[in-house]
Amino acid sequence: MPHRPYEIDVMISAKTIAARIEELSREIEAEFSDTDKIVVVGLLRGSFVFIADIVRELDIGVEVDFLEASSYGDGMESSREVRILKDIRGQIEGRDVLVVEDIVDTGYTLDHVINLLESRKPRKLRTIALLDKPSRRETGVRADWIGFEIPDEFVVGYGIDFAQRNRNLPFIGKVRFTDDQ
Ligand code: PRP
Q: Would residue 105 show up in a list of annotated catalytic residues for this protein?
């Protein structure tokens, strides 16, 4: 499917993201200071860059696992139906778990994942999202830690795609369509 032409403007620089990850990591370390090792669960695919940066900043024991849930496909609108495409490999009963999400939009994905993982009886389950678009929320979910609250802009980069492109940008960019002005 052909896409409308667009350009990408920097919204949050790589440097700003790195500084925020440092701050958040200190808070996460404090929250899990009574634990030998936590299980960090990255939600594929969007969180792969964020989880890589956050686990390298955390000065605590971590085990890394991944879960893939999809509500968007290649479109721009949430289908509100969350599918689990790949489950985590490890057991989390009695463990301390940190779920890492790139962006919370309607909240259906994070809400579904929290319910799923809570049903497996972890000792503690916490969530972190790099980006939060509160104006788009359709559920009551909120991540325990949020990197940046953003307005309802179409963002890409740092793991986030537009039709599977632009995930490899080192910053969060804002999509600007060039055929509508
Ligand atoms: C995107 C994003 C979040 C979710 C947020 O994932 O990575 O996981 O949507 O939307 P929500 O709050 O409205 O549920 P997507 O399904 O596009 O998969 P991807 O991470 O593989 O790009």
A: yes
